[in-house]
Design brief:
By secondary structure, the protein is an alpha+beta fold. It is 24% helix and 27% strand. The protein contains 5 helices and 9 strands. It has helices at 16-20, 26-34, 51-59, 114-125, 143-149; strands at 11-14, 42-46, 62-68, 74-80, 87-88, 103-106, 131-136, 153-158, 165-170.
Length: 176
């Protein structure tokens, strides 16, 4: 019989009081995510279905399960996605130690070469060490050598459904 005592209970965050007081809970939610233990989930309680948060949390590696509770309020359980195989540039190190992305791009609706052009342009504008996250409709095999040639590091993988490619790009050292 498996040992269930090793499972970590999800952290619970009720944002209803913040919203009732006219506050914006996004920063508190992101702080709670940063404080999660490895493998730990987040149970969010809100007075509405927090649809925009689903994509943000997906970009951070979380699946979600939403259910309506009493009086139109919602409870959403965000759980870490199973570790998928991650490819990286040779010098990437451990992408889990990289800073959180400062830029998110959804390029999944664009036809080639537009995603590559936009991603490279965005990477060139980043300060050294800053990270961007992009969602693409396919694996960008021609992008990888361009990123390396320009001094950037990358890490990426397909989502669990295999329908979208997720890539993190960390800007390289300033040229000069």
């Amino acid at each position: 019989m498996p040992d269930v005592s090793t499972e970590i209970a999800p952290k619970v965050l009720d944002v209803r009081p913040i919203l009732q007081n006219g506050g914006e809970p996004f920063q508190e939610i992101m702080q709670a995510v940063r404080e999660l233990a490895p493998g730990q989930g987040l149970k969010l309680v809100a007075p509405f279905r927090p649809q925009p948060l689903f994509r943000v949390m997906e970009g951070r590696g979380f699946d979600h399960e939403a259910r309506e509770i009493a009086d139109g309020h919602w409870e959403v359980l965000f759980t870490p996605q199973p570790a998928a195989s991650v490819e990286t540039s040779a010098d990437a190190g451990n992408p889990e130690t990289w800073p959180d992305p400062s830029l998110h791009l959804d390029l999944s609706d664009l036809d080639p070469p537009e995603p590559m052009v936009r991603l490279l342009a965005a990477a060139e504008k980043l300060e050294a060490g800053k990270v961007l996250f992009a969602l693409l409709s396919r694996e960008p095999v021609f992008l990888f050598p361009e990123l390396v040639k320009r001094g950037h590091q990358w890490a990426g993988n397909f989502d669990e459904a295999g329908t979208a490619y997720r890539i993190l790009v960390r800007a390289g050292r300033p040229k000069g």
